C-alpha cells in the first residue's frame, strides 16, 4: 500500500507553491519529512539545496522574491544534503538518493551522519552496483559502533547483494514484460485479477475533472478501455479510494481495500460489495476479526473455494510490521476468526499481498524480511498441514531490485502469470505479464549395446557450480528419470550403475535433449568388466603409419570423457594388426599406434599413471585372416585391425 500512497504524493498538484517556497523551503521540508510526506519533503529540500548552491538553480514557472543564501554554513549544507538523500530514499528514488549520500560522505560529513554510508550502500544495491555496495556496507560495519540493528541491516544487505549477483548471473527461466496499452497509465496500475473473461485491476490514472491521482478499481474486457467501477451510494469521505479487488467463488462478491483521509491520517480497511441488479452494492466493512480499530488492514485475497480470506494487517498479534493473516468466511461472506500465519511466513519487517492456491497448497506473497534482491520480493511456501515450508525466494526476473507484489496466474495459460512491480519506474507500480519457461527434464536410461531400458541406475541432478546434489533417484523398470530445471544455472546429470561406466552429462538450460548431449531423451550406459577388452570403433590410421587421423581424435575424446567421469579406473589401450607383414613389424607398428592413442589422451589432461599403451601385433586375432581354402579374408583382417580399451583396475 506504500506505493499507492506514494503515487498520490508524487503526482499530486501542489498549490500555493510560490508562497510556500518564499516562506522557508528548509522548514517546509522538515515539516513534510516529519509527516512522512517524503516526496513533498524532497521538493522543498531540493529548493533549499539550490539556495545553498549545492545544485544549479533550475528554471521554475515563477519568480521568487527575497534573498537566498548562495553558500551557507557547512552544517547547513551537510544537513540539506543528508535530508534530501533521506527523502529520496524513503520514497524509494534510490537513483537520486545515491548521489546525495555520496556527497555527504565525500565532503567529510560522515561523523555528523554516521548512517550515510549504510544508506549509500543500500542505494548502490538498489541501483544494481552490487560489488561497490558490498565494499561500502562492509566499510560501514567495520567503522560503526552505534545501535546493532544498523549493523544487522548492513549484514542483510551484503547477503542481498551476493544473492542478487547470483540471480542476475543465473536467472530463473522466466520472461517478464510490462503490459502496454489500456493496462498502462500515468499513475500506478496494479493488482490484476481475472474472472469470466474480464480483468479487474487498480489504477491511480487521471479521470476527467480529477485534481489529483486517486486509486480506483477498473474493469477491462479484451483490449477495450478500462471502465471505473462505481459502488452504489457509498458515503462521502475525504480522498476516498479503492483498490486490490478479489472476487469470491461465484464472482458475485468483491472484496477490496478502501481507504480515506481523517485529518492527516489515512485509514485502511477491507470491505466487500455484492453484485446485484447490474451494479455493485455499497461496500460493507468486514468485522473486527479482520479490521481491528486503530490498525490498517489491506489487500484481501479470497481462495478459489470461497472459504478463506487472506489479508495483510499490522494489527496486534503479528510478528512486526505488516503481516499475512487468514480468516475463515461464513455463508454471508464475513470473517469468523483471524489467524496470523506465524513466524515461518512473517518477519519483523513487512509482508504483503498474499495469493493462495488451495489445490496445490501453495502460498505466494511478498516480503522485505528475507534475503532477496531488494524491496518487496516474491516468496513461495507450501502448507504442510500444521506448518508452512520455509519460504523460498522466487528469483530474478520475477523479482527485481524494486518492489514486486500481487501475483496472479493466468486462467487460460498454465505457464503465464501477472505481477505488479515498480522496476521500470521511480514512483509507480505497473502491470507485468510473465511466462514460466521452467520445465521438467526427463528421459530413459538404456544399455548402449542392447538398447534396452536399464533399471537400477542412480541418476543425480547436480549443481555444476556448488557441486551440490539437488535431487537423485534410482530408475525402476521403466528406466525413466525426471528433474525440474528452473534456472539458467549450469547443472549436470550423473548416471551410475555397478558394471557400467559412470556418465556425466551437462544439462542445457533450454531443456532440449539429443542423446548424450541431452537433445534426445535416451541416455545409454556402456557396460564393462575388468580385464575384458572393449573394441573402440573408428580409430583410423594412414597406411603403414601410427599418426592419428582427425576422425580418430573425435572417437578418443569419448574415451577422455569416460576417464574423467570414472576417475578410479586404470586402463590399457591396446592396438592390434592383421597378419600381413612380419611379426616384428606388426608388433612395432601396433605399439606405436597404441602409444599414439595414449599420448593423445594424456594430452587432454588424463594422468599417464592411469593409462598405458600395449601393442599386440597379430598375436590376438578375433577373426581368421584367411579363409579355409587359403584365400585372403578381407572382412576378418578388418576385424583384427582394431583398437581396444580394457579396464585393468577399479579402485
Topology diagram in text:
Elements (H helix, E strand, L loop, with lengths): L1 H10 L5 H7 L1 H10 L3 H14 L22 H17 L3 H13 L9 H11 L3 H14 L4 H22 L4 E5 L10 E7 L2 E6 L12 E6 L5 E2 L9 E10 L5 E10 L2 E12 L2 E2 L3 E2 L11 E6 L5 E6 L9 E6 L10 E2 L10 E7 L4 E6 L9 E6 L9 E2 L10 E6 L6 E6 L8 E7 L2 E9 L10 E6 L5 E6 L5 E6 L5 E6 L6 E5 L14 E4 L8 E3 L13 H16 L3 E8 L6 H21 L7 E7 L16 H7 L2 E8 L1
Parallel strand pairs: 22-28, 30-31
Antiparallel strand pairs: 1-21, 2-3, 3-4, 4-5, 6-7, 7-8, 8-9, 8-10, 11-12, 12-13, 13-14, 15-16, 16-17, 17-18, 19-20, 20-21, 22-25, 23-24, 23-26, 26-27, 29-32, 30-32
Helix pairs in contact: 3-4, 4-5, 5-6, 6-7, 7-8, 7-9, 8-9
Mean pLDDT: 90
- The named CATH superfamily of the largest domain: Glycosyl hydrolase domain, family 43
What's the end-to-end separation, in Å?
63 Å
Number of domains: 4
Number of alpha- plus pi-helical segments: 12
CATH class of the largest domain: Mainly Beta
Q: Are there runs of 5+ residues with pLDDT below 50, and where?
A: 4-21, 57-70, 511-519
Q: How many strand segments?
A: 32
Helix content: 10-25%
How big is the Rg? 35 Å
Main location: membrane
Keywords: Cell outer membrane, Membrane, Signal
Pfam families: OmpA, PD40
InterPro entries: Bact_OuterMem_StrucFunc, CarboxyPept-like_regulatory, OMP_bac, OmpA-like, OmpA-like_sf, TPR-like_helical_dom_sf, WD40
